[in-house]
Amino acid sequence: MMVQRLTRMPRIFTILLAILLMAGSDAGASKYKRSIENVVIPDVVLVNQQGEKVRLKSLLESDQPVLVDFIYATCTTICPILSAGFANFQRELGPETKNARLVSITIDPENDTPAAMKEYLERYQAQPGWDFLTGSRQDVDRVMKAFNAYFRSKMDHQPLSFIRSQEDGKWIRLYGLMSSSDLMKEFQQRGGK
Amino acid sequence: MMHSSQTFTAFMTKVAIVHVAVLLLLVGASRSYGAADQQALSAEETYKLGERMYREGILPSGEPMQAFVSGDVPVSGTSFTCVSCHLRSGLGSIEGEVSTPPANGRILYLPREPYIKGYEHVPSYHNYAVYFPTRPAYTDDTLAELITSGVDPAGRSVIKAMPIYDLNDQDMAILIAYLKTLSAQPSPGVSDSEIKFATVIVEGTDPVAVASMLAPLEFGIARKNSLTTASSANDRVARMGYNMLGPDLLQKKFSLTRWVLKGPSSTWRSQLDAYYQAEPVFALLGGISAGDWEPVHRFCEENQIPDLLPIVDYPVISDHDWYTLYFSRGVRQEGESAARYLHGMYDLIKDRAIVQVSRDSREGRALADGFRATWADTGHPAAIDIVLKEGEQFSQQRLQQIITELKPAALIVWDDGAALEAFAGLPDMADRPGVILASGTFVGKALWTIPEQLRGLLSFTYPYRLPQDDIRFDALALKVLPGKKTSDYDQKIIRQSYITNELLGKALMDMRGEYYRDFFFDTIGMMPDAYYPLYERVGFGPGQRYASKGCFIVQLGKGENPQLERRSEWVTR
């Protein structure tokens, strides 16, 4: 009912942040926020793009360094940039791709079926070592909350990437749309190479 | 695609050369990216090629466009298209913390001010306008510079958020020509004083269902039109309406015409064409059919007319069609969720058989098809299919025969409530399946009559919020029936149509006076997931066409007044 909705009308506009767009930033210079986080990975079983069950704790707490982001397959803005970054990261690593595990976790589990996730990874020419995970809404919510990356709706999401060091198990939380070189730099600083 | 930093450097060098060339042209005679560059192409060819660049990231040559994002990340234009962010209408997007300004020629070629002319004092418009920095009007040259170098006419870099594209002059001209067509001509059905809508009703549909579909829509439209009328006579109402809607939407009245389709569905298309010719409408709202809908879907697709949430059991399932938004994937969705549910417990099934019994009716076939398709996606061996012909009862003997001969680990029965009688002796049967699944909607009211001893043995797909949880939305949903007896209406359809009315109002208010059909659905695609009556969660997301995607698996609880109890979380396909 239109009349009753009116008081909520400006809501969508109040979340507008043009800081990432036309903010007068230097070309190519990433501005992102970096922090170190302790993340307690919930013991949930998610499903990857092959439809295989994956115990998240085992996947993330491995001997390899791990990169995590939260995306969804039909996203029009943030996720393509994050995924282009992951794709380029794999290209930069080249034959050493196996030295890092990339994990994208959907924030739209209702829509992101294994088939949709597989098609998405193919679109970004993902190499082995980059998995896209879905699961029940409840489990995905638990994971998002564990990473302090909870979005009530997929349309409220933020550009967040995480890198886990296999040395101390801590996570670097990276907030912002990063350049490929900055992502690689962060990766290497936390025990990648 | 370019894969190395050397290639990127080479590209940037080329960009710099282009800039010098553009500057030289600006000093002398300005370069034209308009018609002069496209003499060899017809306007239609230019449009098609431009559309492919914009939507698919494919150059006229057939090669992918080359792009870089976030400064130095090389990407293929096919995975980073213009439409990704500026959307089909070209009017931009708002998602999470990133907002993308319009990219259509009509707006680009005007200076951007910190206000929208004519709407300076409307809060929502003001909030939108002030977030984007001002800039001079684009020209063909400065637009080309933005696309190739990421620098806008005010000298600001947008390189962090927008890809830069490596385009030659001819391709650039084609793309710019296309941008000039985006949201350029007003959509049909919209005038200064009115927005016309229609709703399609298939003759023969249950009159209660039709009335239930219409009531919320007509209520919403009457309320809107009352506000418009009142605002012309009352300054206080006018001020409130202005602040909420802006002068443009406030003064427009809405109309809703009923397009009734008669006869076989093969004749509907000509009827739809005649209705539309007589009265071009901006969009279709709702609509209802107990059976076919595809001709209406195709009509909307081919005429690019949005249809917002028709009430149908058999929506067209498509990954790429654009112009109809559906509540769900229909009956089929329960079959899909059943497959996903069984997949989740496959460790308990392992190599044992799964049997799918389905009624040879439209409903039974849709459920069985949905199960079969999703089960195939999981990679498990196919279920054993048994089809019940017309008039063939699913009996206790048949059930016993299936169990004895096939010993299924899971049995799925897609049939109506009469089939439940077959399970009367189930508690005493040896080797009974660990899981027996049926459709809660196909079984219908018989679901509530299941004897106590069977309730823990039979599970059902249920594509709605559980009734006891939905009660809290009742007052909201039934506000659309003021002074009417609510029991005269179909409770499910009333709630569905309530959602349609809500989305319509929200979308029109978010559209900032840009009444373009593509922007209508672009806008709905940008809305956050919402909690409405009936469905557990309603949300589209960009390009998504089915709002609610899944089911609960439920069982009937104990006692004389049992409730449905969840046996799963929300299971999607």
What does this structure look like?
The complex is a heterodimer of chains A (193) and B (573). Chain A has one domain: Glutaredoxin (3-Layer(aba) Sandwich), CATH 3.40.30.10. In chain A, 31% of the residues lie in helices and 19% in strands. Chain A has helices spanning 2-5, 11-14, 56-60, 78-93, 114-123, 137-146, 180-189, and strands at residues 33-37, 45-47, 53-55, 66-71, 101-106, 130-133, 160-164, 171-175. In chain A, strands 1-8-7-4-5-6 form a six-stranded mixed beta sheet. A two-stranded antiparallel ribbon of chain A has the order 2-3. In chain A, a hairpin with a 6-residue loop joins strand 7 (160-164) and strand 8 (171-175). The model of chain A is unreliable at 1-29 (pLDDT under 50). Chain B has 573 residues and is α/β, with parallel strands linked by helices. Chain B has three domains: 5-179, no CATH class; 194-328 and 470-541, Response regulator (Rossmann fold, 3-Layer(aba) Sandwich); 332-462 and 553-566, Response regulator (Rossmann fold, 3-Layer(aba) Sandwich). Helices cover 40% and strands 14% of the residues of chain B. Chain B contains 21 helices and 19 strands. Chain B has helices at 5-27, 43-56, 82-86, 105-108, 123-131, 140-149, 169-179, 207-233, 235-251, 268-278, 294-303, 332-344, 346-349, 362-378, 396-406, 440-443, 452-455, 467-470, 474-477, 491-510, 517-525; strands spanning 66-69, 73-76, 93-95, 98-100, 164-166, 194-202, 253-261, 283-285, 288-289, 307-308, 311-312, 324-325, 354-359, 384-388, 410-414, 435-439, 459-462, 552-556, 564-566. In chain B, helix 14 (362-378) links the parallel strand 13 (354-359) and strand 14. In chain B, helix 1 packs antiparallel against helix 6. Chain B is globular. The two termini of chain B are 34 Å apart. In chain B, 49% of the residues are buried. At the A-B interface, helix 1, helix 2, helix 4 and helix 5 of A face strand 2, strand 3, strand 4, helix 5 and helix 8 of B.
